Each structure stands twice: as C-alpha cells, then as structure tokens.
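Protocol step 4 of 5: obtain the predicted structure for the target chain.
Materials: sequence only (see below). No template structures provided, no constraints applied. The aim of this step is simply to have a reference model before the mutagenesis design in step 5. Sequence pasted as it appears in the construct record:
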Amino acid sequence: MKRGPSPFRIVVTLVLTLAIPQTVHATAGSEIPSWLQHHIGTSEGQITEVVLQRARALYQEQTRLSDIRNPCYFAMDATRPSTSSSGQPGQRFYIICEGDESFRAVSSGYGNGRDLPEADFSNGRECAQNFSNAEGSKLTAGGAYVTAETRTSFKGYFSEEGERVPFTRTFLLFDGMGEADNAREREIGGHVAMFLRWQCRYSNPESPYADAEGYVPFGNLVNYTGGRSNGCTTWSEEVAEEIIALVEENPTTLYIYPESADINAVAAAVEAGRDPTEEGLYWNASCLGEIGAPQFWPREELQPIIDRWRQTLPDQPPLELPICR
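Step 4 output (structure tokens):
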C-alpha cells in the first residue's frame, strides 16, 4: 500500500521567510547591496529574498570560518518549476559574484525520487513535491553545502557527425552540513545534464577506455537539461563547464532551498487550509498549486523502507552488451 503524508511530520509554526536556519547564521554587515536587490523577486530570472539571504549568510559565514576565497557563491530554489512561461528550462539555480556585481540565473534539475511498494516519493517532471536526505532516495535535500573536488569518468562512445566520439562527464562533489551532512554517502554533487544510454559495444582496442577484451560501450547521448536527476544538481553543458571551471581548486558555497523546516511548515499551513504566504512562508506559487502540499521524508523514516526494498531485489547477472552491428 502506498503511503500518504507522514504522521510524524513536525508542525512548525515559526515564521521562516526571513529566518536563518541552524546551518546558516546571520553575519554583521550583511545588508543586501542595492544592485543585488534589483534581482529579488518571484519572476523568471529572479531570486526570492529568503533564498538569497540564506545563501549570502552561508557564504559570509564560510569565508570567515574556512579557507573559502572564491568571489562567487551559488544558490538554488528547488520549489520553482522546470519550465518557464516561454517554454524554456526554468531558471532556479543562481551564480552570484558580488565583487563584480554579477548575477546569473540558470536552469537546474532536482531529484526524481522513487515509487516503491511501501511508499511513493516520486516527483513529476515539472515540480518537486517530495524531498529527503535518505541515501538511495534520489531526492533533493535542501540545506548548506560546500563544493569539493571533481571526478571525471568515461561513459562510452556516441555518434557525432558520423564519427564515434567518447563522452566523459565531470562530477563536482558537494560536502553537506546539518541535515545534508551525508552528501558524500549519497554521492550528491553537480554535473552536466547528460547521460549515455548504452546500446551495444564494439571493438576498439586502441581506445584508452577499452576493456580487457578491447571493447568499448556505444549508445545515444541524452540531454535532460532542466528536468529531473537522481538527486544531484544538473546543468546545461555550457553552464556546467562554467561552474566547474569557477570552483576547480577554488571551493565555494551552495545553499539549496527548501530545508525540512520550510517544507513541514508550508505543508502544515496547506493542510490546515491556510495560505502559507500569510504566515510569512515561501513556496513557488505555480508549483504549490500543482503539488498541493510538499513532503519531507526524514532519513530515519525513509531509509528502512529503501533498505527493505533493496533486499527484495533479485541478484542480477553482470551486464553484457551485445556486439554493435
């Protein structure tokens, strides 16, 4: 039987729109500069004030307490829709460089979740309803992160202009804090919104990526910019290259909204028939209308469900791709 909203949801009555969560503390001299205030709002390409305030506070805190010296920082609003009114990927990830007064809003994916026999915590393509920090949930976990090292891996070959070319993908790891402190365990980070759907393998012993028998995988390159992911932050090819170059050996902070307290407070208001905005709470209006109410699945509640499901999976033989024709 599929589960509905958790009976263990914590009802939060604090006003959270301007509050700073436990993982992020306000700092002196943190008044938002006038040039950046022009980018505050709920329209496409803008950032809401609560997301910006928390992202700035996290960045200022970490530049004081750690060795972060990057002039830019990141923020993400996972309550926004995947598609803008123009039909283009929705802008919900922000690159902010206050030194040169630079602000850029770009698209990004969010976690697609899972539909398991004991619980359906899957997300639609347009709006995220379910969030969690459980390992294996494939969901987004809001909170404070710091970018870490990168890892580049070979995924296979694909066809481009009649030539078979290799596809490698660079993965930017995140280190989380607070309720996102298991980001490493969850293998959470950022990468280009592309993957290779394998079809077959062919002999290419001269390739540096060939296996012991001289074969390499081949498939179709799939671009899912602005859609869903396995819980990671995903960007377009151009933006991914820019972000990775910006933080390579020069880490910075990333704040992802919403956290569990935000989710629980908005859900409690909706379920009580109250308007969240009248209680000082923020959620993107169009997505809230689509999902009804959001839900946060604590790892303590969701992890046992995922683990029991994994135990029911049959042993799978090693994947052996057919030979390409």
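Step 4 remarks: Residues 25 and 57 are 6 Å apart (CA to CA). The longest strand covers residues 143-160.
Proceed to step 5.
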